[in-house]
Design goal:
276 residues; six-stranded parallel beta sheet; 2 domains; six-stranded mixed beta sheet; Rossmann fold; 10 helices
Length: 276
C-alpha cells in the first residue's frame, strides 16, 4: 500500500494522480490519503511499518520533520533539507525529494527550459529545491528575490556553484533583473486563494523578453493574477500542475524502483485531471 500524509490532506491531488498512473501501468496497488498531525510523523512511521505501507509521499507540515527520522537519505535531500517521498527498502526508511526534478521536467514540458538567467520569487522550502536544482541543471544566474533579504542570502549560501544571488523584492529590483532574464518563477503564496497578500504591481513583467516564460508554482487557482498578466503580455506561462504531476512520476519511480514512461504517464494524468 502507498499513501500520502499531511495536515490538511483532504485537498491533495496525489491520490488521483498516483492511482491514475498505477491503473495505467496495470498495477493493483492502493494509494490513499492519511491525516497526520504536526509532530506525529514518528508515530506514523511505526504505523506504516506495521500496516504494509511500502512507501508514502509527504506534504506540509512534515517535509523537514522527516529528515532526521530516515535511515537513509538521497543526496538531493541533503541539498534541499526536506523529504517528500519515502520508500521502505530492506526494512529501512529511505527519504527522497522529487520537487526539484519535478520543476525542471515541467519547465521542459512547457518549453521554458533551458533558460540562462532566472528570477525566482521567494526563499522558502519550495524555492530552495527549485533554485538548487536549476543551478545544477545549467542556469548561469538565478536571482533569489525575497522581501527579507537575509532569507535569500541564507538560501544562496547553500549553492556550491555560485549561480544563486540574493536580491530584494521591490519593484525597481524586479524590473532591473527581469530585463536580463528569460524566466520568472513564483515560489511564494502570492496569488493563492485566501492569501491575505497579493502582488501589488505587475509592471516588472513589461521588461521581460518577448520569448520569456513565467511559471507559478500555485495551481489553485489554475490562473493566478500573475499568469493572467503574463498571458496578456504574450508571454509563455505555466502553473504548478505540471510540476505536481512530474514530481509524482519521479516519486512513483522510487516506489516501484524502476524507470517509467514519463511522457505517457503525464499524458494520462493530465487527461484524468481535466475530468475532475
Amino acid at each position: 500500500m502507498l499513501q500520502v500524509i499531511g495536515d490538511p490532506i483532504a485537498h491533495s491531488k496525489s491520490p488521483i494522480i498516483q492511482t491514475t498512473m498505477l491503473d495505467y501501468l496495470g498495477l493493483d496497488i492502493p494509494y490513499t490519503p492519511h491525516l497526520v498531525k504536526k509532530g506525529d510523523v514518528a508515530q506514523y512511521l511505526a504505523f506504516a511499518a506495521a500496516n504494509q505501507v511500502t512507501g508514502f509521499n509527504s506534504t506540509m507540515p512534515h517535509k523537514e520533520d522527516l529528515v532526521p527520522l530516515m535511515d537513509e537519505l538521497g543526496e538531493e535531500v541533503q541539498r534541499y533539507g526536506a523529504v517528500n517521498t519515502v520508500c521502505l527498502r530492506d526494512g529501512k526508511w529511505v527519504g527522497h525529494n522529487t520537487d526539484g526534478d519535478g520543476c525542471l521536467e515541467s519547465l521542459v514540458y512547457s518549453g521554458m527550459w533551458p533558460a540562462r538567467q532566472v528570477v525566482l520569487l521567494g526563499a522558502g522550502g519550495a524555492a530552495r529545491a527549485v533554485a538548487l536544482r536549476l543551478a545544477q541543471a545549467g542556469a548561469e544566474r538565478i536571482w533569489v528575490c525575497n522581501r527579507t533579504l537575509s532569507k535569500a542570502q541564507q538560501l544562496c549560501q547553500l549553492d556550491p556553484t555560485g549561480v544563486l544571488a540574493p536580491a530584494g523584492f521591490d519593484l525597481d529590483t524586479l524590473a532591473r533583473l527581469c530585463s536580463q532574464s528569460q524566466l520568472v518563477i513564483n515560489c511564494t503564496n502570492l496569488g493563492m486563494n485566501d492569501c491575505p497578500h497579493q502582488f501589488e504591481d505587475f509592471s516588472f513583467l513589461d521588461v521581460l523578453p518577448r520569448d520569456a516564460g513565467v511559471m507559478d508554482l500555485i495551481y489553485y487557482p489554475a490562473q493566478t493574477q500573475l499568469l493572467q498578466q503574463a498571458q496578456a503580455r504574450g508571454l509563455n506561462t505555466c502553473n504548478g500542475l505540471p510540476m505536481l504531476v512530474y514530481q509524482a512520476i519521479f516519486s512513483l519511480e522510487y516506489f516501484l524502483n524502476r524507470s517509467l514512461p514519463r511522457g505517457e504517464l503525464a499524458k494520462a494524468v493530465f487527461a484524468r485531471l481535466a475530468q475532475v
